[in-house]
Amino acid sequence: MDTDSRRSKLRQDVKEAVVVSNQLLTAGGEPEKRHIVLKLPTGMDYETGDYLAVLPINNQKNIRRVLKWANLPWDAVLTIKTGTNTTLPTGHPISAMDVLGAYVELSQPATRKVRSTLMRSISMLTKK
Question: How far apart are the first and last CA of the chain?
Fold first, then answer.
């Protein structure tokens, strides 16, 4: 998915920054900590206390693992109902690969509540 497409479908005011440097701060064998410098878009300022979201593109291996876990085919298409309390794209079809690749966090373990919600949503999809 290209970044312009993702930006146009997110229901937020999203702008793209450029990673200027990405420096590993921790020694080998320790949990990774990094110092990342971003170049913000022209006309955008950041001050202490401002909110900054990082929306990376997920690894294909993780996407395939989630699709397998959810028993969804690689070409599954989803439509998230308009009015749903989410920042995901709603009201139009979008591939499961795009949702998992560019709109959700896959690198952190899901909580029990999130897994339960996912399974209910997936079972509703497969019943149609």
Answer: 26
Domain of residue 94 covers 56-127
- 3 state DSSP class of 36: strand
With respect to residue 44, please indicate whether it lies within any of the assigned structural domains.
Answer: no
Give the residues of the chain that fall short of pLDDT 50. Answer: none
SS3 24: strand
Does 93 reside within a domain? yes
Name the pTM for this structure.
0.58
In a domain, 26, yes or no: no
What is the spatial distance between Cα 52 and Cα 59, in angstroms, rounded to a whole number? 22
Residue 121 and residue 99 in contact, taking contact as beta carbons nearer than 8 Å: no
Q: What is the pLDDT of residues 49-59, one digit of tens each?
A: 988 777 778 99
Gap between the Cα atoms of 90 and 94, Å rounded: 9
In a domain, 4, yes or no: no
